[in-house]
Amino acid sequence: xxxxxxAMVCHEANRAxxxxxxxxxxxxxxxxxxxxxxxxxxxxxxxxxxxxxxxxDSHDNWLLQKKMDGWVYGPVKDTxxxxxxxxxxxxxxxxxQRRKDSxxxxxxxxxx
Length: 112
Prior knowledge:
Blueprint: H1 3-20, H2 34-49, H3 55-68, E1 72-73, E2 83-84, H4 95-111
Parallel strand pairs: 1-2
C-alpha cells in the first residue's frame, strides 16, 4: 500500500471510532479537506520513520504539526478558528482520545 492509502485507512478508522464516541463531525476521506488528508499522511510518515514510537509520541507529533499550522486549544473543534480540544499534552487527553493514537499506530504497523 502507498503512504496515502494507509493514511486513508487511518482516517476512515478514526472517523468510525469517533462516530462510536458520538462525534459525527468527521467526513469521508474523499470529502476531507487537503489539510486533514496531509495531517494523516504526515502521521503515517512519522510512524514509518519512527517505528518504535509510542502513542504519546504520535500525539506529540500531531500536536506539533497543528501548532505550526496555527491551531490552538478550544473546547470544541472549530476548523475555521483552528481550535481543537485535543491541543493539550497527551496525559491530559481523555482515555477515548488517547486510544485514537494507539489505533493509528496499529493500522500503520499492520499495513506497512
